[in-house]
Amino acid sequence: GAVVSQHPSRVICKSGTSVKIECRSLDFQATTMFWYRQFPKKSLMLMATSNEGSKATYEQGVEKDKFLINHASLTLSTLTVTSAHPEDSSFYICSARGGGTYEQYFGPGTRLTVT
Amino acid sequence: AQSVAQPEDQVNVAEGNPLTVKCTYSVSGNPYLFWYVQYPNRGLQFLLKYITGDNLVKGSYGFEAEFNKSQTSFHLKKPSALVSDSALYFCAVRLTGANNLFFGTGTRLTVIP
User: Fold this and answer.
1) CB-based contacts of A55: which residues, under 8 Å, 6+ apart?
2) Residues B24-50: pLDDT tens digits?
């Protein structure tokens, strides 16, 4: 199946700093990418959907100025958590879907810890 | 509004026994249905999907699921469970023409040796 990578896999940052997470589709062109947040023992919460070259569409309750998403190419999307706070600590997962396909392929996730 | 329900937070089954992980959905229109598995500290891995056609779909690692339109269910099954099947399983639905997936709350499967 298609491969999606995320970098970094784990990151610890201090409160007030910004953190960038990269999501790459390695062997297919991702026309649409998704960013999810997963709390312990909880389901995935969709944060935003982005199409290549367009602004991301954020879900209700997700601050677009805090969670900056850039989908600059068909193989790369980035999520930047700005001015991070401890409550932003979570597991962030991206997924990607190629044009005309049904499946979403998920990255391995990034564990963010804000101290 | 669409929703996906996984009524069991936890399912325990003995190795070698058949397993079932339940999923029901509520959507307007025709859904696309998916099952994903998640191992600790990992992303989700696609298991199988139902788009159209035969109600019984077969997927990875010996898993299968049956789409039941009248009961609006899409239960995941495997005839003989392995210890390595122990993981978190998510059911998801996507509406025709929509972009994103709606996930159930997940079911933790534990296969007991």
Assistant:
1) none
2) 999 888 889 999 999 887 788 999 999
In angstroms, the Cα distances linking B93 to A13, A76, A77, B27, B77 are 35, 25, 24, 9, 17
Report the first-to-last Cα separation within chain A, whole angstroms.
37
CB contact under 8 A, A103 and B105: no
- Residue A66: pLDDT above 70? yes
Q: Which of residues 74-113 of A touch B (CB under 8 A)?
A: 91, 93, 95, 97, 102-109, 111
Q: Which residue of A has its CA nearest to B45?
A: A106
Question: Sign of torsion, CA B25 B27 B33 B35?
Answer: negative
Cis peptide before B18 (omega within 30 of 0): no
Q: How confident is the model at residue A8 (pLDDT cuts 50, 70, 90)?
A: very high
Report CA A93 to chain centroid distance, whole Å: 5
* Structural tokens at position A48: 């935003």
CA distance B19 to chain A (A): 21
Burial per residue of A17-55, b for 16 or more beta-carbon CB atoms within 10 angstroms, e otherwise: eebebbbbbeebebbbbbbbbbeeeebbbbbbbbbbeee
Give the pLDDT confidence of A31-46 residue by residue, as tens digits. 899 999 988 767 888 9
Decide if A44 and B44 are in contact by the 8 Å CB cutoff.
yes
Spatial separation of the C-alpha atoms in residues A15 and B79, rounded to whole Å: 49
Position with higher pLDDT, B98 vs B83? B83
Both structure tokens of A110: 């990034």
